[in-house]
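Protocol step 4 of 6: structure prediction from sequence.
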Amino acid sequence: MSKKTFPINFIMTGGTIDSYYEGTKDTVIPNEHSIIPRFIKSLHLENPTEFTEICMKDSRDITKDDLKNLLNEIEKSSCKHFIITHGTYTMPDSARYLEANLEDKDKVIILTASMLPMTEFTMSDGGFNLGYAVSKLQDLPNGIYVCMNGKIFSATEVIKVISEGRFTSILGEK
């Protein structure tokens, strides 16, 4: 059963999903500009898409001004469906910030990320997490969510378990 198509606004903030591995520093560095639009366009989605780059940063470097810019972009957009690519370290914090400050609650907003860069690792979870987020947009009620590891979490419950490289709920298994 197919549902009506709707525009999706992809908002990029950097993070590992949009980074490259820098061997001389033994870490990932955010790309100068996002690769997400090129990836999404290659999927030939039926949904109209918009792309907005807020910043290209490790999520630990995202500032209050970056969060305000993210919030303002969502508030001013006529879209009702958003996917935000983000770094994993502070993604739960940003989700809670949006939950607390978003005035227009008539939107479905999903934050997603990856543990490995999409462009250099064939086994990156980035493409899967983006696809999962796109597929869940049509089913979720209005709200702020994090989609990672094949699961959906509300902004108020999600946490990153660094030692296990995954996300989970502070409420336990549902």
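Step 5 (inspection) to follow. The helical segments are 36-42, 64-76, 91-101, 126-137.
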